[in-house]
Amino acid sequence: MMSQGSASPLVEIRGLSFARGARVIFDGVDIDIPRGKVTAIMGPSGTGKTTLLKLIGGQLRPAAGWIKVDGKDVYTMSRAELFAMRKRMGMLFQTGALFTDLTVFENVAFPLREHTRLPEAMIRDVVLMKLQAVGLRGARDLTPSELSGGMARRVALARAIALDPMMIMYDEPFTGQDPITVGVIMKLIRLLNDALGLTSIIVSHDVKELAMISDYMYVISEGKVVGQGTPQILDREGSAWVNQFMHGLPDGPVPFHYPAPDYAADLLAGG
Amino acid sequence: MPDAMIDSLQGLGRKALSFFERLGRAHLFLWRVLTGLPQAFARPGLLVAQLYSVGVLSMVIIVVSGLNVGMVLGLQMYNTLSDFGSEESLGQVVALSLVRELGPVVAALLFAGRAGSALTAEIGLMKATEQLAGMEMMAVDPLKRVVVPRFIAGLISMPLLAAIFSAVGVMGGYFVGVGLLGVDSGAFWSTMQSRVDWHEDVLNGIIKSVAFGFVAAWIAVFEGYDAMPTSEGVSRATTRTVVHTALAVLGLDFILTALMFGVD
User: Fold this and answer.
1) Which of B39, B130, B137, B146 to mutate to test the interface with A (most CBs of A within 10 A)?
2) What pLDDT is stored for residue A4 in this prediction?
């Protein structure tokens, strides 16, 4: 396991450009993800935040720029190296993406069964430990259809840490969840990051939640990074747009009114 | 040239190009599936589970349809044969129709409708719920783990199901012909035995069903894997599986029949 030392960022992105058809998603983006910390990547819906995670994981190729994970360029790697790198990355999808035909236990055991030759007794121990970490050891025999949304995400989280990865990527972990589940997930993200020495990347637009648990934040809009810093810095400084985004103001650089002709003239024109 | 004509020509060109692009993708997909075959045999548990859900669970429809087709054949052929006074040849006629044509073709069409569409829907839904993407991010190739066992299961099940169809159909023909219509039982079986040749008829029928199984399994897993990950996309993909398999099987049937049974 080669590491570049604890000072250099775990993920370095430089000059990233990516487009889907005619739509430009990223236009020269520079991001550094520091080791051992929770980094948030925020932006309005549809800015391509999930696309960024797929680019880091090597599922998509950028049109320009490069991405290095632990010092190695993701796109010049061979297929075998890419697969080896993916084993050290955990990903939590928005829907959990649990395998519907397997129980909770089997879902968490899946990466262990596929990538290791551990004996069954050891696999059982590891799975129970991971489930205990997310608080669902008692749910091990349920199937995904019997789980609530929040529980499904916690099982997916246990599965993502099954192989003790070096980093975890969270795709919109809080979206659509009740306050208690949001609190549980927030606690788990921070706890696992610190306890296991992980590097966490969270992609979301839930500003309040992210501000409470992140060490560093990036704001992306229209394909560029428009603001970055610790939550405290971003809260106070930053452009007018960043300010409107961070505080959820209804009017500002992103106007409330869709462009329309003069109001009085419009009403009078109807006769 | 008027705009409407140019637009329709462009549309035609676009459709043709996307058809060939899809065909190319399907072949690249097939290549990846075939190169993954040896690994799949190393995990028999997955394969057996798929053989059960693809093959065994299709047995009901195959047996019931086979019986009905055989009985209808018995009735229809008896009518025609009695015009020429050749009712005793009923056994031979029923057996040849089933083994050469109806067994492989009808079983393939039923397979596409039941097992093929189920495979497409299952793989398409796994894609739509990000299970395949999740597997990829866990460094497990979803093609090898999910698609290849299902493809092999389809390939193995089809010839077996076609054989069962033919066998049950012959029994159906026997019940109607000998039981209902009074054809002599000995004549029924002896004409069949003398005129149905192992190499010419049965083996050719088996070759056909293997070819149909290959095509049906390939189309079913490709459509699922290539489906748009939305509910509309999955429903379109399942329809496409049934339609394309039917067209491909019937077209292939003509080609194979011309090659095997045609006039030299």
Assistant:
1) B137
2) 41
